[in-house]
């Protein structure tokens, strides 16, 4: 069955790139609504923005959605990952400005808020997107692939020159509370050398040593160090789940990312939906539902979260 959040929940913070204060409220929505954002500061144009792959603009540092009136919302991926990972299929998300608040740089604050309010079952069946054949995209030496599988699995590998990150690979079956236990508290990361460049270009203005893991060579500059020894690859998997959630329904397939990012995952969804023989929409029966992210999620799954 489809779900929504039981009661509304709000979050206050700043935008990672804009540095502007932002308030975000997740509100319950009815079955068939899907996930939509609305900009509460926009009064002269359509403020509604669908959380959908076909309105995502290519942006290397975050996932930005833009509606037909040109109203945009940046950095949607961490709240999208939280909703997908907790198994929330319908919600209206109000945001007071052009960017989702970064909070601690991970999805954990969103997950805590959602789990605290609880999930409500709705009286409508759930659909899923079944991958029928391998679809691949590449950009330089980065690749992203979807292949058939009976539930969502994410396999990710990164390779950075900085020894503090280096080569990391992780593979997870995303059923049940896996996202919450394994991925949701992993923070976004960047290299100290990139910070100056981003700031000079008006980006990362809301970035701090607390809401991003900053590395320089073999050193982790952020106080307290890493939350997991492989926190960077876990965060890339979190981003991938959030970006895949823009498909509009749970995906049954294996996602494999090598040095992939927001742009490549979006290109992958575009390639999937451009080929009608590559996927089909299926009713999610009890067997299928049992393998979805968030099903059976329990408050105790939060115990391991930083
Ligand atoms: Zn991210």
Name the bound molecules. Answer: zinc ion
Task: Count the beta strands.
Answer: 21
Widest sheet: strand order?
Answer: 2-3-9-4-5
Unreliable sequence segments: none
What is the distance, rounded to the nearest whole angstrom, between the alpha carbons of the first and last residues?
Answer: 30 Å
Radius of gyration over all CA atoms, rounded: 18 Å
Structural class: alpha+beta
Largest sheet: 5 strands, mixed
Order of secondary-structure elements: EEEEEEEEHEHEEEEEEHEHEEHEEHEH
Output mean pLDDT. Answer: 95
- How much helical structure, as a percent, in the residues? 10-25%
Instruction: Please tell me what the overall shape is.
Output: globular
Strand content: 25-35%
SS summary, helix count: 7
Keywords:
single chain; about 300 residues; alpha+beta; five-stranded mixed beta sheet; 7 helices; globular; binds zinc ion
